[in-house]
């Protein structure tokens, strides 16, 4: 007990002399400790997020990330040392501050470990002291692990569109005729199930069915937390390989379906504001086709809108009301114009930077569904899973693959940020 009291007294003196904020780490009753509380509760996804193979280890101990952190620290110190009125600079400071806070806290914890080593020399005979020191070291090491995960998480540059909570999801049959339409219907049902499982809100804006019950084209308004972030990597060409039910010779056919994920320009934080002028629009009405009873075939309820400057065309005939169809069509048109402007800017400024896994080109084959082998292969990450029946339920199988894509994207985004700093420094 005397030893512990002496150690406590020496501890406070060391803290005072070394100006290290370590008072909360002394050997007190656990209920009196003010332990570090992480800002987020992390699952195994975050732990696995930075464990993928690559050109270098994605950890805070890697030379590349250490250099990246030092660059950020110098940038932060330079910015805060000056009086700034520029909005973008202040925004940059706000982005860097939590990184620097975590970085400083991590440095303090390593300082605590150094002091513990000084207070417990290797030749110490005090078993109780050694045991207490070991307990404290374990506590600090666990806190450092948590801080490392938090720091790696905030180091990943923010993608503004990931905050988008409203999208239009479009599914269109591609090559393959009726078989492509049948597969499009299966994908449509899968995404609807996924949306329901995520507790998001959806509304069908357009749905054009084939004679065999397939789907020619469908548009969904989807809203919910992180909806764009989770569905953005579904955009592209989905390929199916199977024997169609109408095939008599047993040959395997290959068909395709295209999926588009379009963020709606409804958030003020987004880059563009889409304004539709009457002189730029050609609005046409016609009688709806397909199911819906006698009413849709006798009234001009379907709406077709052409945006003259871009040539973008949208149609809506999902509702019996022409007014409602006009609203749906205008919203889809705004979204498509926004996506057109966004793609144009990205093409000009990024020179095909792969911030997403693969490119955002709609013509890229992203996934293959092989029915004979009961497998799904995502070509962007080379990942293959089995059990098509379970996957098309839109539950854990699809969600796991989407999360894997997000993990790889976040890692790629961090590596791109590090590479960009090296390039700007001429290294």
Could you walk me through the main structural features you see in this protein, from its secondary elements to its overall organization?
The protein has helices at residues 2-18, 44-49, 63-80, 87-119, 127-155, 177-197, 227-231, 294-298, 322-350, 388-391, 396-424; strands spanning 166-173, 201-209, 215-223, 236-242, 253-263, 281-286, 302-307, 312-316, 365-370, 375-378, 383-386. The protein is of the alpha+beta class. The protein folds into two domains: 2-155, no CATH class; 160-417, Alpha-Beta Plaits, CATH 3.30.70.1660. The strands form two sheets. Strands 2-3-1-5-4-9-10-11 form an eight-stranded mixed β-sheet. Strands 6-7-8 form a three-stranded antiparallel β-sheet, with helices on one face. The longest helix is centred in the N-terminal third of the chain and has 33 residues, at 87-119. Residues 1-56 and 349-363 have low confidence and may be disordered. Pfam families: PCRF, RF-1.
